[in-house]
Amino acid sequence: MQKILALFLLSLTLNASDEIGSLLFHGNCVTCHYELEEKSAPAMIEVRKRYLTAFPNKKDFVQQLSQWVANPSRETSIMQDAVQKHELMPQLAYEKDVLEDIAAYIYETDFTKLHSGHKAH
Amino acid sequence: MGNILLFALLGAIFYYVFKSYAKYEKYSKEAFKDFSASHESLRRSELGLFVALCAKVAKADGRVDALEAELISNMLDDISSVFPQPQKTKEILKEIFNEEKNRTDNIEHLAHALSHATKRSQAMQHQFMQFLIQLAFADGEVSKSEEKILATIAEAMQFDPQAYHKIFDQFEKMMQNASPQNNIDDAYRLLGVSANDDMATIKKAYRKLVRQYHPDIIKSQGKSESYIKEATQKTQEINQAYEMIKKARS
User: Fold this and answer.
1) What DSSP character marks residue B159?
2) How far is B205 from chain A (nearest CA, A)?
3) Apex CA B76: angle with CA B6 and CA A47, to 5°?
4) ipTM beyond cut 0.90
5) Which of B2, B38, B49, B124 is a plausible cystine mate for A4, CB 3.0–4.6 Å?
6) A5 lies within 8 A of chain B by CB
7) Cβ atoms of residues A86 and A41 within 8 Å
Protein backbone atom coordinates (compact mmCIF):
# COMPACT_ATOMS: atom_id res chain seq x y z
CA MET A 1 0.00 0.00 0.00
CA GLN A 2 2.71 2.42 0.97
CA LYS A 3 4.45 1.52 -2.26
CA ILE A 4 1.40 2.45 -4.27
CA LEU A 5 1.03 5.74 -2.48
CA ALA A 6 4.72 6.48 -2.93
CA LEU A 7 4.44 5.69 -6.63
CA PHE A 8 1.35 7.86 -6.89
CA LEU A 9 3.09 10.79 -5.23
CA LEU A 10 6.21 10.23 -7.30
CA SER A 11 4.19 10.27 -10.51
CA LEU A 12 2.64 13.56 -9.40
CA THR A 13 6.00 15.22 -8.85
CA LEU A 14 7.41 13.76 -12.06
CA ASN A 15 4.47 15.14 -13.99
CA ALA A 16 4.94 18.49 -12.32
CA SER A 17 8.53 18.95 -13.47
CA ASP A 18 7.75 17.58 -16.92
CA GLU A 19 4.95 20.09 -17.11
CA ILE A 20 7.18 23.02 -16.23
CA GLY A 21 9.47 21.87 -19.02
CA SER A 22 6.53 21.73 -21.39
CA LEU A 23 5.33 25.21 -20.43
CA LEU A 24 8.82 26.64 -20.75
CA PHE A 25 9.43 24.93 -24.09
CA HIS A 26 6.13 26.03 -25.58
CA GLY A 27 6.46 29.48 -24.05
CA ASN A 28 9.91 30.19 -25.40
CA CYS A 29 11.64 27.86 -27.87
CA VAL A 30 8.83 27.36 -30.37
CA THR A 31 8.93 31.01 -31.35
CA CYS A 32 11.86 30.02 -33.60
CA HIS A 33 12.05 26.23 -33.42
CA TYR A 34 8.82 24.84 -34.77
CA GLU A 35 8.23 21.29 -33.69
CA LEU A 36 8.10 19.67 -37.08
CA GLU A 37 8.99 22.34 -39.60
CA GLU A 38 12.23 24.07 -40.40
CA LYS A 39 11.62 27.81 -40.65
CA SER A 40 14.02 30.39 -39.25
CA ALA A 41 15.74 27.68 -37.22
CA PRO A 42 15.96 23.88 -37.37
CA ALA A 43 12.82 21.96 -36.44
CA MET A 44 12.77 20.54 -32.93
CA ILE A 45 12.47 16.94 -34.16
CA GLU A 46 15.72 17.45 -36.05
CA VAL A 47 17.51 18.92 -33.02
CA ARG A 48 16.22 16.09 -30.88
CA LYS A 49 17.28 13.45 -33.40
CA ARG A 50 20.83 14.80 -33.64
CA TYR A 51 21.26 15.12 -29.91
CA LEU A 52 19.77 11.67 -29.31
CA THR A 53 22.24 10.20 -31.78
CA ALA A 54 25.17 11.98 -30.16
CA PHE A 55 23.99 11.64 -26.56
CA PRO A 56 21.60 8.71 -26.12
CA ASN A 57 21.86 8.93 -22.35
CA LYS A 58 19.43 11.43 -20.79
CA LYS A 59 21.95 12.94 -18.43
CA ASP A 60 24.44 13.70 -21.23
CA PHE A 61 21.67 14.89 -23.52
CA VAL A 62 20.37 17.38 -20.96
CA GLN A 63 23.81 18.55 -19.97
CA GLN A 64 25.12 19.02 -23.51
CA LEU A 65 22.03 20.64 -24.95
CA SER A 66 21.55 23.04 -22.03
CA GLN A 67 25.22 23.97 -21.95
CA TRP A 68 25.33 24.70 -25.64
CA VAL A 69 22.20 26.86 -25.56
CA ALA A 70 23.56 28.74 -22.53
CA ASN A 71 26.64 29.51 -24.57
CA PRO A 72 26.17 28.87 -28.26
CA SER A 73 29.34 28.53 -30.28
CA ARG A 74 30.13 27.51 -33.85
CA GLU A 75 33.00 25.34 -32.77
CA THR A 76 31.07 23.16 -30.38
CA SER A 77 27.87 22.87 -32.41
CA ILE A 78 26.87 19.35 -33.38
CA MET A 79 24.66 20.82 -36.11
CA GLN A 80 27.19 22.57 -38.33
CA ASP A 81 24.88 22.48 -41.35
CA ALA A 82 22.15 24.26 -39.42
CA VAL A 83 24.56 26.93 -38.17
CA GLN A 84 25.69 27.46 -41.77
CA LYS A 85 22.17 27.78 -42.98
CA HIS A 86 20.55 29.83 -40.19
CA GLU A 87 23.52 31.47 -38.50
CA LEU A 88 24.50 30.77 -34.92
CA MET A 89 21.72 30.70 -32.35
CA PRO A 90 21.79 33.92 -30.28
CA GLN A 91 22.66 33.78 -26.63
CA LEU A 92 19.36 34.23 -24.85
CA ALA A 93 20.42 34.43 -21.22
CA TYR A 94 18.12 31.77 -19.85
CA GLU A 95 19.00 30.36 -16.49
CA LYS A 96 20.77 27.04 -16.26
CA ASP A 97 17.94 25.22 -14.51
CA VAL A 98 15.40 26.54 -16.99
CA LEU A 99 17.50 25.19 -19.87
CA GLU A 100 17.86 21.85 -18.11
CA ASP A 101 14.11 21.55 -17.59
CA ILE A 102 13.54 22.31 -21.24
CA ALA A 103 16.25 19.89 -22.41
CA ALA A 104 14.76 17.13 -20.26
CA TYR A 105 11.36 17.81 -21.77
CA ILE A 106 12.78 17.63 -25.29
CA TYR A 107 14.53 14.35 -24.46
CA GLU A 108 11.28 12.83 -23.22
CA THR A 109 8.96 14.14 -25.93
CA ASP A 110 8.32 12.52 -29.26
CA PHE A 111 7.03 15.54 -31.14
CA THR A 112 5.63 13.44 -33.95
CA LYS A 113 3.14 11.91 -31.54
CA LEU A 114 0.38 13.58 -29.60
CA HIS A 115 1.93 15.21 -26.56
CA SER A 116 0.97 17.35 -23.65
CA GLY A 117 -0.08 20.87 -24.55
CA HIS A 118 -1.05 19.92 -28.05
CA LYS A 119 -4.37 19.69 -29.70
CA ALA A 120 -5.32 16.43 -31.36
CA HIS A 121 -5.89 17.01 -35.05
CA MET B 1 -6.77 -3.06 -0.98
CA GLY B 2 -4.29 -0.43 -2.09
CA ASN B 3 -6.59 0.68 -4.83
CA ILE B 4 -9.55 1.09 -2.52
CA LEU B 5 -7.54 3.31 -0.21
CA LEU B 6 -6.24 5.25 -3.13
CA PHE B 7 -9.75 5.85 -4.44
CA ALA B 8 -10.89 6.80 -0.98
CA LEU B 9 -8.07 9.31 -0.80
CA LEU B 10 -8.91 10.74 -4.21
CA GLY B 11 -12.58 10.77 -3.26
CA ALA B 12 -11.80 12.71 -0.13
CA ILE B 13 -9.78 15.23 -2.11
CA PHE B 14 -12.55 15.75 -4.64
CA TYR B 15 -15.15 15.94 -1.92
CA TYR B 16 -13.16 18.65 -0.23
CA VAL B 17 -12.65 20.56 -3.46
CA PHE B 18 -16.28 20.33 -4.48
CA LYS B 19 -17.48 21.24 -1.03
CA SER B 20 -15.55 24.48 -0.94
CA TYR B 21 -16.49 25.03 -4.53
CA ALA B 22 -20.20 24.51 -4.08
CA LYS B 23 -20.48 27.79 -2.24
CA TYR B 24 -20.14 29.47 -5.56
CA GLU B 25 -23.34 28.65 -7.25
CA LYS B 26 -22.34 29.96 -10.60
CA TYR B 27 -19.11 28.04 -10.55
CA SER B 28 -20.68 24.73 -9.73
CA LYS B 29 -23.34 25.21 -12.37
CA GLU B 30 -20.64 25.89 -14.88
CA ALA B 31 -18.76 22.79 -13.80
CA PHE B 32 -21.73 20.56 -14.38
CA LYS B 33 -22.64 22.19 -17.63
CA ASP B 34 -19.18 21.27 -18.82
CA PHE B 35 -19.46 17.75 -17.58
CA SER B 36 -18.05 16.39 -20.81
CA ALA B 37 -15.27 18.89 -21.10
CA SER B 38 -14.67 19.75 -24.74
CA HIS B 39 -12.30 22.21 -26.30
CA GLU B 40 -15.15 24.44 -27.42
CA SER B 41 -17.15 24.44 -24.21
CA LEU B 42 -14.06 25.15 -22.14
CA ARG B 43 -12.90 27.87 -24.46
CA ARG B 44 -16.19 29.68 -24.02
CA SER B 45 -16.37 29.22 -20.24
CA GLU B 46 -15.05 31.94 -17.96
CA LEU B 47 -12.23 29.70 -16.81
CA GLY B 48 -11.14 29.01 -20.39
CA LEU B 49 -11.28 32.72 -21.17
CA PHE B 50 -9.30 33.46 -18.05
CA VAL B 51 -6.59 30.94 -19.00
CA ALA B 52 -6.41 32.53 -22.46
CA LEU B 53 -5.87 35.96 -20.91
CA CYS B 54 -3.23 34.56 -18.54
CA ALA B 55 -1.38 33.34 -21.63
CA LYS B 56 -1.33 36.87 -23.04
CA VAL B 57 0.01 38.35 -19.81
CA ALA B 58 2.61 35.60 -19.33
CA LYS B 59 3.97 35.96 -22.87
CA ALA B 60 3.74 39.77 -22.94
CA ASP B 61 7.46 40.31 -22.49
CA GLY B 62 8.30 37.73 -25.14
CA ARG B 63 9.24 34.90 -22.85
CA VAL B 64 7.77 32.69 -20.17
CA ASP B 65 10.13 32.48 -17.21
CA ALA B 66 10.48 29.80 -14.57
CA LEU B 67 8.28 31.33 -11.87
CA GLU B 68 5.59 32.17 -14.42
CA ALA B 69 5.65 28.56 -15.59
CA GLU B 70 5.34 27.35 -11.97
CA LEU B 71 2.41 29.64 -11.32
CA ILE B 72 0.67 28.68 -14.54
CA SER B 73 1.18 24.99 -13.89
CA ASN B 74 -0.32 25.38 -10.42
CA MET B 75 -3.17 27.43 -11.80
CA LEU B 76 -4.01 24.78 -14.40
CA ASP B 77 -4.03 22.09 -11.69
CA ASP B 78 -6.16 24.26 -9.49
CA ILE B 79 -8.73 25.08 -12.14
CA SER B 80 -8.98 21.62 -13.64
CA SER B 81 -9.36 20.00 -10.23
CA VAL B 82 -12.89 21.35 -9.95
CA PHE B 83 -14.02 19.73 -13.18
CA PRO B 84 -15.35 16.20 -13.25
CA GLN B 85 -12.61 15.17 -15.69
CA PRO B 86 -9.59 17.00 -14.31
CA GLN B 87 -6.95 15.32 -16.46
CA LYS B 88 -8.78 15.87 -19.72
CA THR B 89 -9.73 19.40 -18.70
CA LYS B 90 -6.13 20.22 -17.92
CA GLU B 91 -4.92 19.00 -21.29
CA ILE B 92 -7.49 21.18 -23.02
CA LEU B 93 -6.62 24.20 -20.87
CA LYS B 94 -2.96 23.72 -21.79
CA GLU B 95 -3.88 23.65 -25.46
CA ILE B 96 -5.84 26.86 -25.01
CA PHE B 97 -2.89 28.42 -23.20
CA ASN B 98 -0.42 27.41 -25.91
CA GLU B 99 -2.63 28.59 -28.73
CA GLU B 100 -3.44 31.90 -27.12
CA LYS B 101 0.04 32.90 -26.01
CA ASN B 102 1.06 33.52 -29.61
CA ARG B 103 -1.82 35.80 -30.51
CA THR B 104 -2.30 39.40 -29.50
CA ASP B 105 -5.12 40.30 -31.86
CA ASN B 106 -7.97 38.94 -29.74
CA ILE B 107 -7.22 40.30 -26.27
CA GLU B 108 -10.10 42.74 -26.28
CA HIS B 109 -12.49 40.16 -27.61
CA LEU B 110 -11.54 37.64 -24.90
CA ALA B 111 -11.69 40.23 -22.14
CA HIS B 112 -15.07 41.36 -23.32
CA ALA B 113 -16.32 37.77 -23.37
CA LEU B 114 -14.95 37.18 -19.86
CA SER B 115 -16.64 40.29 -18.63
CA HIS B 116 -19.91 39.10 -20.15
CA ALA B 117 -19.56 35.58 -18.73
CA THR B 118 -18.98 36.94 -15.23
CA LYS B 119 -21.27 39.95 -15.34
CA ARG B 120 -23.30 38.72 -12.40
CA SER B 121 -20.33 38.58 -10.11
CA GLN B 122 -18.23 41.66 -9.61
CA ALA B 123 -16.29 39.80 -6.97
CA MET B 124 -15.23 37.19 -9.48
CA GLN B 125 -14.18 39.82 -12.00
CA HIS B 126 -12.18 41.44 -9.27
CA GLN B 127 -10.50 38.14 -8.46
CA PHE B 128 -9.64 37.42 -12.08
CA MET B 129 -8.16 40.88 -12.51
CA GLN B 130 -6.16 40.47 -9.35
CA PHE B 131 -4.67 37.22 -10.62
CA LEU B 132 -3.75 38.68 -13.97
CA ILE B 133 -2.00 41.56 -12.24
CA GLN B 134 -0.28 39.14 -9.89
CA LEU B 135 0.99 37.14 -12.84
CA ALA B 136 2.44 40.29 -14.38
CA PHE B 137 4.27 40.97 -11.13
CA ALA B 138 5.61 37.41 -10.92
CA ASP B 139 9.02 38.27 -12.33
CA GLY B 140 9.45 41.13 -9.89
CA GLU B 141 8.33 44.05 -11.99
CA VAL B 142 5.71 44.83 -14.59
CA SER B 143 7.12 45.52 -18.04
CA LYS B 144 5.65 48.14 -20.36
CA SER B 145 4.13 45.47 -22.60
CA GLU B 146 2.60 43.67 -19.63
CA GLU B 147 1.13 46.91 -18.37
CA LYS B 148 -0.33 47.66 -21.76
CA ILE B 149 -1.98 44.25 -22.03
CA LEU B 150 -3.39 44.53 -18.51
CA ALA B 151 -4.81 47.96 -19.32
CA THR B 152 -6.36 46.65 -22.53
CA ILE B 153 -7.98 43.80 -20.61
CA ALA B 154 -9.26 46.07 -17.86
CA GLU B 155 -10.73 48.49 -20.35
CA ALA B 156 -12.42 45.81 -22.43
CA MET B 157 -13.85 44.29 -19.26
CA GLN B 158 -15.11 47.72 -18.27
CA PHE B 159 -13.32 47.18 -15.03
CA ASP B 160 -13.57 50.12 -12.63
CA PRO B 161 -10.35 52.10 -13.23
CA GLN B 162 -10.11 53.07 -9.60
CA ALA B 163 -10.34 49.46 -8.45
CA TYR B 164 -7.77 48.51 -11.08
CA HIS B 165 -5.26 51.08 -9.87
CA LYS B 166 -5.90 50.08 -6.30
CA ILE B 167 -4.96 46.45 -7.00
CA PHE B 168 -1.97 47.58 -8.99
CA ASP B 169 -0.70 49.85 -6.23
CA GLN B 170 -1.22 47.11 -3.66
CA PHE B 171 1.00 44.72 -5.56
CA GLU B 172 3.60 47.38 -6.11
CA LYS B 173 3.76 48.02 -2.38
CA MET B 174 3.83 44.32 -1.67
CA MET B 175 6.82 43.85 -3.94
CA GLN B 176 8.67 46.61 -2.13
CA ASN B 177 7.77 45.10 1.21
CA ALA B 178 8.66 41.52 0.38
CA SER B 179 11.62 41.48 2.70
CA PRO B 180 14.61 40.22 0.78
CA GLN B 181 16.59 37.56 2.61
CA ASN B 182 19.47 39.27 4.31
CA ASN B 183 21.89 36.47 3.90
CA ILE B 184 22.23 33.08 2.34
CA ASP B 185 21.57 31.28 5.63
CA ASP B 186 18.14 32.90 5.82
CA ALA B 187 17.49 31.82 2.25
CA TYR B 188 18.33 28.20 3.06
CA ARG B 189 16.24 28.38 6.19
CA LEU B 190 13.24 29.79 4.34
CA LEU B 191 13.33 26.92 1.85
CA GLY B 192 13.81 24.43 4.67
CA VAL B 193 17.01 23.04 3.17
CA SER B 194 20.63 22.94 4.21
CA ALA B 195 23.68 24.38 2.51
CA ASN B 196 24.88 20.81 1.96
CA ASP B 197 21.85 19.78 -0.06
CA ASP B 198 22.28 19.42 -3.80
CA MET B 199 20.50 21.68 -6.27
CA ALA B 200 17.89 19.05 -7.18
CA THR B 201 16.78 18.79 -3.54
CA ILE B 202 16.63 22.55 -3.20
CA LYS B 203 14.65 22.91 -6.39
CA LYS B 204 12.18 20.31 -5.17
CA ALA B 205 11.75 22.16 -1.90
CA TYR B 206 11.28 25.42 -3.78
CA ARG B 207 8.60 23.98 -6.03
CA LYS B 208 6.77 22.44 -3.13
CA LEU B 209 6.72 25.75 -1.27
CA VAL B 210 5.52 27.71 -4.30
CA ARG B 211 2.76 25.17 -4.71
CA GLN B 212 1.87 25.47 -1.06
CA TYR B 213 1.83 29.24 -0.75
CA HIS B 214 0.92 30.88 -3.98
CA PRO B 215 -2.72 31.98 -4.06
CA ASP B 216 -4.90 29.83 -6.31
CA ILE B 217 -7.79 31.23 -8.24
CA ILE B 218 -10.26 28.57 -7.10
CA LYS B 219 -8.93 27.90 -3.63
CA SER B 220 -8.86 31.56 -2.78
CA GLN B 221 -12.46 32.17 -3.84
CA GLY B 222 -14.20 33.80 -0.94
CA LYS B 223 -11.02 34.21 1.07
CA SER B 224 -10.05 37.60 2.37
CA GLU B 225 -7.80 40.01 0.53
CA SER B 226 -5.21 39.65 3.24
CA TYR B 227 -4.92 35.95 2.45
CA ILE B 228 -4.04 36.71 -1.15
CA LYS B 229 -1.66 39.45 -0.08
CA GLU B 230 0.18 37.25 2.36
CA ALA B 231 0.33 34.36 -0.07
CA THR B 232 1.68 36.59 -2.83
CA GLN B 233 4.28 38.05 -0.55
CA LYS B 234 5.34 34.62 0.64
CA THR B 235 5.65 33.41 -2.96
CA GLN B 236 7.92 36.34 -3.69
CA GLU B 237 10.10 35.64 -0.68
CA ILE B 238 10.40 31.98 -1.61
CA ASN B 239 11.38 32.95 -5.12
CA GLN B 240 13.93 35.48 -3.98
CA ALA B 241 15.49 32.97 -1.62
CA TYR B 242 15.75 30.44 -4.43
CA GLU B 243 17.27 33.01 -6.78
CA MET B 244 19.79 33.95 -4.13
CA ILE B 245 20.89 30.35 -3.62
CA LYS B 246 21.15 29.77 -7.36
CA LYS B 247 23.27 32.87 -7.78
CA ALA B 248 25.53 31.96 -4.90
CA ARG B 249 26.16 28.54 -6.38
CA SER B 250 26.75 29.50 -9.97
Assistant:
1) -
2) 11
3) 105
4) no
5) B2
6) yes
7) yes
